[in-house]
Sequence to fold (921 residues):
Amino acid sequence: MSKADDNTVLQVNDLNVSFDTPDGRVDAVRGVNLHINRGECLGIVGESGSGKSQTFMTAMGLLANNGIATGDVLFHGKSILGMPVQQLNKIRGKYMTMIFQDPLTSLTPHMTVLDQMTEVLKLHTDVRGEDAARKSLEWLERVRISDAKQRLEQYPHELSGGMRQRVMIAMSMLCEPELLIADEPTTALDVTVQAEILDLMDELKKDSNTAIALITHDMGVVARMCDRIQVMKDGVYVEEGTADDIFYSPQHDYTKMLLDAMPRIDQPDKATNRKLKEYDEKGRDQEFLTVDDVRVEFDIKINEGWWPKRVPLKAVDGVTFTLRPGETLGIVGESGCGKSTLARAVLQLIPPTAGAVSWLGSPLSGLNRKELNKKRKDLQIVFQDPLASLDPRMTIADSIMEPLQTFRPDMSRKEMKAKVAKIMERVGLPQHMINRYPHELSGGQNQRVGIARAMIMEPKLVVCDEAVSALDVSIQAQIIELLMDLQEDFDLSLLFISHDLSVVREVSHRIMVLYLGRIVELADRHEIYKDPRHPYTKQLISAVPIPDPKLERSRKRIKLPGELPSPMDPTAKLRFMPSKIEANQLDYVPRLDEVKPGHYVAEHDELEKLIV
Amino acid sequence: MIAKSEKMDALAENIVEQHAIKGRSLWQDAMARFVRNKAAVVSVVVLALITILSFVGPLFAPWDYETIDWGTMGNAATLGYPSIATGHYFGTDDLGRDIFARTLQGTQISLTVGFLGAAVAVVVGTLYGAISGYVGGTTDNIMMRIVDLLLSVPYMFVLILLLVVFGRSLQMLFVGIGLFAWMDMARIVRGQTLSIKNKEFIEAAIASGVGSFTIIMRHVVPNLLGVVIVYASLLVPSLILTESFISFLGLGVQEPLTSWGALINEGAKTMQYGVIWQLGFPLAFFIVGLFCFFFIGDGLRDALDPKDR
Fold:
């Protein structure tokens, strides 16, 4: 275990942070000690509300007005806690910088990248004018932004999420700080982008000998990046040690639980105590849900010339699949690939522009609202944000009861209440919560309410739209387990949408990979991870961090050059077939071939060709 | 494996329990903030006293609002001064009618106009705005253009015209005020509805097969209540002001009924003849009443704005 010495950049001694709220005093951080040395990456792991961010916000002097901090924060042996803002400003931004989760909100929207970067230089150094511009460009190139020169003149909203985070990193590295605090830097990003940002931070650590404090909830990210790890729970460090210690011989129960509950892409059936039952085709009616060449287009206004033009944006561009009764189909893809739109088109919440959805042999598309509402009894959805999907002014029992009121008006209120009580028990909600409001419950409990509402009519199909993405890992594992139990009890079919490939692997029988509204690969859950064929699938799988430091650091990653093309770009669908673009066959639509029984892959060029 | 899983469940349960915050409802929260606002609480008390007085007071007054005290008639300046002995606590007007009884009667009318007008505006405006916003598209366009059109008509002019053409009556006054007061409400509600209708719980309700009108009544309107209450609390005094202005012009309520505005009008005409009580008492009620409404409105706005925690 390393000790604080001359090499130590930041040292925190017995830090306590508490907040005065209308509910009384809340102790967010209780007696925390830590130190970070040069060229070291310290990981702070914990679930939401554990106080991991507050520790560093306080160290940076960003404590909220109702907060009180005691203890000591030393930067190179000099106490900076409670230092006047003017003096503190000479240290923060120059010697210690911070990057946040959401790169859009942490960049000023009305300033170009160049302006924002030179402002930092103006404040902390005497680099001005041409020199400042040159230095900014240099750093943008170092963080490997494509067309760096052009980016300098752009505004934050013109950049993609990954590029924004790169700009943030470039900005925070401008003065070559000794400490970089990264608060969930990749949580809002797609896995492939996350992989690149993490690589970049790792390189910076090695090249500039910068100390990095990485705050995250993701054990995979920690395994990849960190030398030392502190596990935090309820404002206290429950365990600390080197990466190997924590991952291979965890001591504290909480650390063990975190590691256990984390799904791994290389090991199916890990996060939960039960295994997904293999799909059994016998005696099943095959006419269940058929989605045939569904397309969803949104009209986008483009201001070009005198009149705004309307251009269709193809959110879903010809997707065909079938779902069998009692089966789970996982839909994965990065943000903007149309997975949520596809799910809503299946449920007819967004009417598809073209194509047909048929349900138990009869078409769903083209029905009017009344006819559709009758079918909704069997078609339900569970949303990503458990709190937002519940009416804040209704008790949870009323929310759960709502489908009953719609479909079973013949039932008396008493019967409905009995049924609600039954389903609440089934999803693991205690009876005494019946009159609670959503904001009084935790995220996991609210998601149970959402599931109870979806399940009360005993539907045949439930769409889970990122249903576990907003939850902490331990809660996530429980919810996954609940979904699998319910599936067995009710012979439910699930469309499980997620950006997280390891979670999808836990729950799905078959997995479909979407890219810009098109299927690139569709196969059995084991098949797709063992034998991915499409370059995009390979890239996705290789980008997911595995919570195992040795394995994770020795893994080879597949990187495809370039950013995600805009779906408005007519050649976007040929992203993996540059040969057709070269041949000027711009209208070519890649076919979906069945390479093995049940394993479909979209046409593509060889991986080697794509990388060069 | 089993032992491990039990442990994990216990741990996980532990976490779930700790995350469950002992809750207060949104209303309790707002109530607590409202009570902390001293001016608003005092205003509620004062306004309640005024209201109670306006209904209970006439029972104890020796004179009623239309009976003429022939002894003081024409001699208001010398005989009609405020006095406990004569039973004219606030004095009399030039016709010898008791100002105390008339002020209370005027308070009743003014408060009724304010509350009833605001209630009509709230009901019509909320429904109109919620439907317009929720349905959206062409319907929204048409409904909102109608509001724009009506708002562009100078309403005071139309109100005066209505009262002149159809004669002065309390009913006409209600119709006239109600006709215009709901439009601002409708606009505000529509804006709020637009942001509510894109929330996931609305989508969840659609996915549960709930009909559009039920969604509006069950999910949209209750979530608008905060805004509606705040706006209504500011609408009441503005309606009282409108009524007072109309009465001040002499177009409001019909004699012998009166209102704050009508009383102030009469009092203002005679203030140079040494009968300042004819103006003073109604004016005091009017000012105190309006102040209370504005303080309450401010208090509610602060209390119901979740960003202000």
Q: What stands out?
A: The longest helix of chain B spans residues 99-135. Chain B has one domain: 25-54+97-308. The two ends of chain B are 47 Å apart (CA to CA).
